[in-house]
Amino acid sequence: MSVFQHRQSAHCESGVMASLLTHAGLPMSEPMAFGLASGLAFAYLPIVKLSGMPLIAYRMPPRHLIKTLSKRLGARLHSRTFGNPEQGRRELDAALDAGRLAGLQSSVFWLPYFPPEMRFHFNAHNLLAYGREGNEYLISDPVFEQPMRCAAEDLQKARFAKGALAAKGLMYWLDDVPLEQDWDRLIRKSVLATTRILDGMPLPWIGIRGIQHLADRVARLDPAQAKYNRLYLTHIVRMQEEIGTGGAGFRFMYASFLQEAGEKLGDASLGEASARLTAIGDEWRQFASACVRASRSKSEAPNFAPIADSLRGIALQERALMKELEAWAKRKG
Amino acid sequence: MKLDEVPQDHSSTYGGHSKLVYAVDASGHYQRAQSDGWEPEAYATQLAVAELEAHEAEARGAWQRGEASPLKCLMYRYRLDEPALGQITGLWQWRIRRHFRAEVYRRLPASILARYAEAFGLPLEELLGYQKDLA
């Protein structure tokens, strides 16, 4: 088997899948893996609380990329979780000794190579193990520049951390990756799915409606609750930027996918869609800056209306773009 | 975002690492680019960390004065809150809140303390030792 090449990614799950596929002989960029798996989304989930704040997601839930991408490409995905942690360790060792790459789901908090300020209890991080030496595993963690090493006990603790989204030692790998793909069909199918996720769900918290819902929440913040407002607004920023999204809550990554897909198919309309999404992404970044400015301001009555309006503007632009992409995906094909 | 707009704000929250972002070059072509920090993002991260640290300091004070058990302080130190600690230990939150009381903590059996020890990644002996300190 060829030597494994680590490649830095913006996001863990798309990075692991891009690396697994590339290693299996199907060259795949991270944005391509993200786009073909229809990873882009928006969701505002007030029931799921993270340190008392609603979950705000800019992408599909964990494991969606892994499952959807392997299915669409026709690759065989093996995945296993373990009731017994010791067995999980043995199976990982056996896979690595057989020369396989192993995708692993783990907690961020228990990985010692993460910077202290980034260590939060998020259990759905993804990384690749590609070998072991003595008591250490050789780790390709997609969000880092270089390959990492991790002591066996630490990795074990991270794989079997309990709590929300517990990984239960999830380990996965790909077999039989077809190297011939019908790119035109794949791209249309995945773009169509994204337009439905973002603007075809009759639910007030998902997609464009979810963005509008968030705008309403921001507009209705009580200026008297300065501390809560600060935590709420910066929480949005963290969900959008801190948790490896490639900038602007995955919008730049998806725009990069649209551009690459357009070049692959020789279709200029995807290139135009990419440029428009880049502009929308820039507005998401400005929105994040405005949230932080409002959190910092010492003035008595911060005005949240302009921030909410900028979000509503973003929502309408994304809706218009999704309508055009939907029409494109349904054309010929 | 253009390549020359990719922020390089040397944020301490990145711990000396760089993140990968996607940005367009002068001809509108997407490139991979590294960013060693973005100030608004770092502010948001630091605010969340400071919030936890403030909770921790308050709980540590109550513990040192003998008014509370160490569990609340440790919970914040290990970046957890009551719902998260409940999920990890498998204990109801009302039980956890009860265990925050010094006199209740003092009498907790080792089997319960072991669940907290695992959640915090601490040796059980340490939590048992705190029991004696409170006595």
Overall 3D shape of chain B: elongated
- Mind telling me the CATH superfamily name of the largest domain in chain B? lambda repressor-like DNA-binding domains
Order of helices and strands of chain A: HHEEHEHEEEEHEHHHHHH
Largest sheet of chain A, described in full? 6 strands, antiparallel
Q: Quick gist of this model?
A:
The complex is a heterodimer of chains A (333) and B (135). Chain A is α+β, with helices and mostly antiparallel strands. Chain A has 11 helices and 8 strands.
Question: How does this structure look, described?
Answer:
The complex is a heterodimer of chains A (333) and B (135). Chain A is an alpha+beta fold and 333 residues long. Chain A folds into two domains: 164 residues, Cathepsin B, Chain A (Alpha-Beta Complex), CATH 3.90.70; 148 residues, no CATH class. Helices cover 50% and strands 15% of the residues of chain A. The model of chain A has no long low-confidence stretch (mean pLDDT 94). Chain B is mainly alpha-helical and 135 residues long. Chain B has seven helices and two strands, in the order ββααααααα. In chain B, helix 1 runs antiparallel to helix 2 and helix 6 crosses helix 7. The interface between A and B is large, with 55 and 43 residues.
